[in-house]
Design brief:
It is found in: Membrane. With about 700 residues, the chain is an all-alpha fold. It is about 65% helix and about 0% strand. α8 packs antiparallel against α9 and α23 packs antiparallel against α24. About 40% of the residues are buried.
């Protein structure tokens, strides 16, 4: 028995004494892999083939086992198989269509698996013949488009999307998949939009459609004009955009719910008792258990929508009641195997539900709130590269949102208040926040809370510099909007100031270690300039004059950190070395902070001496601050309210290339055409026939 036959488990024994018999479809595959034209002696060969249940494993392994010389010998037959598959997609007999779609999947996967090092042109030639490829792919895409947009079976539509996902992800690097040139020319963009705009089809296929679109948008996006990018950027149809938002929202909501269930499960029973007995030594283990796989594919789809289409920003703000999604789907999804938490689409009953039930006890939510909750989960643990990239993508999305004028207006709308329960990392020195204590506030407060939470919880040996830079820049962009529009946000600014000062303290304490890997002066400059924003323009956006007083109080109270920072940057800037210029910028940026410290410290000491008080209270210090503003001289600093707008190319190109590769591998792994799904499909169409 050959290795291929063993591997596929193809053979059936009629009795122990007889030789095993091959299935008829396997015999027909063997004829295709022989030199002769299989239809030569049997004119009905192709008709009969597509009536047989596909043996995917055998066909794929057979393709993988073909060596170089055999490829030349059987190429005409492989081309003929591809051609007849495409023709069979137009058949009225639904079983033929099912079998043709699955055969095409096996062809794409098998040929690519065998020829990983071959050029895209060689693979096209082997599959369909290079001279006929344009027409073959045109016919294929037209038939897939027709099946996706028609009134036919939902199972067939699902299989069409599976084939397309299979085709898009057969290569590790999506941009090296030359066959996708034909998918660019023969666009299925409108078919994807139709699925997303229709409530019923969105429920069945929305998840696959959104992931497919996200991948197609990333095909050679920096090298040539990608029609999917162009078309996505100009979509203005409200039902379509809402549909896309609904798919993303439900996938993220499902992840959040599963995470919360897992969190509650870990907090109860024996584990909780043991943790309380031995203190916090098991907190890290608990955290690891909750660090479940993120859904980067759906996150990429959200990014592309936010980044490319300004109209999508309105979808982020669409209000709807927050509801709990049922744990188990009412409709099975046979084509999806067991996958890690967060990588599977949400349950179909939820996706099918056009109107969410209204309940006076439920607060309204929106996609942005769901995303912020999701980000608060994935940003907790950035210890491995996968989670680090997920956190980075969340912050890139928030960067795009913070730069958008409409999004900023919504974030700061005082008439649109929400109670956002962000997830927080377990830490020894603080109690777990109780959901009921969370106030209802403008959404920008939740964004700032998320940034502060990240700053406070990630000061560690393996310092995620890139994420810190993004966090501080997001805060800066929000402050620029508040200053520009003179929005006085009622926020606990002291928490932000405290977090930023502690960050500076951390940079100072770990100067030597961090400088070996990072330019800490750039981050220090951004942090100092945030304080400069508050000092220079705080009177235009801080909620009360008391808030401005408290800012000065915090700077004076923590003056030792700023003094130490000044000494450090002065030392580095006066010596020759690679950080001389970067440190010098921080020195100049500290001018007003130092002016405040040097002005108020003597006044406070004098007040304490005159009144014979060894330690002043906060109120007494604030009184000194208020009565000595008049004699304080500050320098006007230019450009504090200016920022560089986000641009994907060239800074983020390498990141997205690797991210799309990772997503593609994951999608390929989860595109399953297992025996169960085949049986379900064949049973469905057998009863129809």
């Amino acid at each position: 028995m050959s290795q291929v036959e063993k591997k596929a488990g193809l053979l059936r024994r009629t009795s122990s004494s007889k030789k095993p018999l091959k299935e008829k479809v396997v015999l027909m595959y063997d004829e295709i892999f022989a030199k002769e034209d299989p239809a030569k002696n049997n004119p009905r060969f192709w008709d009969e083939l597509f009536l047989m249940k596909v043996n995917l494993e055998y066909l794929e392994s057979k393709l993988e086992s073909v060596d170089g010389e055999e490829v030349q010998r059987i190429q005409d037959n492989i081309n003929s198989l591809f051609h007849h598959c495409v023709q069979a997609l137009g058949e009225e007999h639904q079983i033929k269509v099912v079998n043709a779609l699955q055969t095409l999947c096996a062809l794409f996967r098998g040929v690519h698996q065998k020829n990983k090092s071959a050029s895209g042109f060689d693979i096209i030639n082997m599959l369909m013949g290079f001279d006929k490829a344009e027409q073959r792919m045109k016919d294929l895409m037209e038939r897939l488009d027709s099946l996706l947009c028609g009134d036919g079976s939902e199972s067939l539509k699902s299989l069409c999307l599976t084939l397309l996902l299979c085709l898009v992800t057969v290569t590790d690097n999506i941009s090296q998949n030359t066959i996708l040139e034909y998918v660019m020319i023969n666009s299925i963009f409108e078919a994807i939009l139709q699925i997303l705009s229709d409530v019923s089809s969105r429920g069945q296929h929305g998840y696959d459609a959104v992931v497919l679109l996200a991948l197609l948008v990333n095909y050679r996006k920096y090298e040539s004009v990608n029609p999917y990018i162009v078309k996505l950027s100009i979509v203005d149809d409200e039902p379509t955009l809402d549909g896309m938002g609904m798919v993303v929202h439900q996938a993220l909501t499902e992840y959040n719910r599963q995470y919360k269930d897992k969190e509650e499960e870990n907090q109860g029973g024996f584990f909780s008792t043991l943790t309380s007995m031995v203190g916090s030594m098991f907190i890290a283990d608990a955290d690891e258990k909750l660090s479940v796989q993120t859904n980067e594919a759906i996150l990429l789809a959200l990014y592309e929508a936010v980044h490319l289409n300004r109209n999508f920003i309105t979808v982020l703000a669409q209000s709807h009641p927050e509801i709990n999604i049922p744990t188990t789907p009412t409709t099975p999804t046979p084509t999806t195997p067991t996958t890690p938490l967060g990588t599977t689409p949400p349950s179909l009953d939820m996706m099918n539900n056009p109107e969410l039930p209204l309940d006076p006890n439920l607060q309204t939510g929106n996609l942005l709130i769901t995303f912020l909750k999701y980000a608060s989960i994935v940003m907790q643990d950035t210890k491995d590269e996968h989670r680090l990239n997920s956190a980075r993508l969340c912050l890139i999305i928030l960067t795009c949102i913070a730069e958008d004028q409409y999004a900023d207006a919504f974030l700061h709308d005082d008439n649109m208040n929400f109670r956002v329960n962000l997830h927080k990392m377990p830490m020894r020195h603080r109690k777990k926040a109780v959901d009921k204590n969370i106030p209802s506030r403008p959404l920008v407060c939740a964004v700032l809370d998320l940034m502060v939470e990240f700053i406070v919880t990630h000061m560690m040996k393996d310092f995620p510099m890139d994420l810190y830079l993004r966090c501080v820049q997001i805060i800066h962009k929000l402050l620029c909007y508040q200053k520009k529009c003179r929005i006085r946000l009622h926020y606990t600014w002291r928490e932000l100031w405290s977090a930023l000062i502690n960050l500076l303290k951390f940079l100072l304490s770990n100067e030597t270690t961090l400088l070996a890997k990072h330019n800490i002066f750039h981050l220090a400059l951004l942090v100092v300039n945030l304080f400069n924003m508050f000092i220079t323009y705080g009177d235009t956006f801080l909620p009360t004059s008391n808030s401005y007083d408290e800012l000065y109080y915090e700077i004076v109270r923590m003056h030792q950190v700023f003094d130490n920072l000044y000494c450090m940057v002065l030392r580095v800037s006066t010596n020759t070395g690679q950080w001389k210029e970067a440190a010098s910028k921080v020195t100049h940026a500290l001018v007003n902070v130092r002016a405040i410290i040097n002005h108020f410290n003597p006044k406070i000491e004098s007040y304490a001496a005159v009144n014979h008080i060894s330690q002043l209270s906060e109120e007494q210090v604030l009184e000194v601050v208020r009565s000595n503003y008049d004699t304080l001289t500050l320098k006007l600093q230019d450009g504090l309210d200016q920022f560089e707008r986000y641009s994907e190319q060239p800074k983020e190109a390498a990141f997205f290339k690797e991210l799309v590769r990772s997503i593609s591998l994951n999608v390929r792994k989860n595109v399953s055409l297992n025996t169960l799904s085949q049986d379900i499909l064949l049973k469905e169409f057998s009863t129809i026939s």
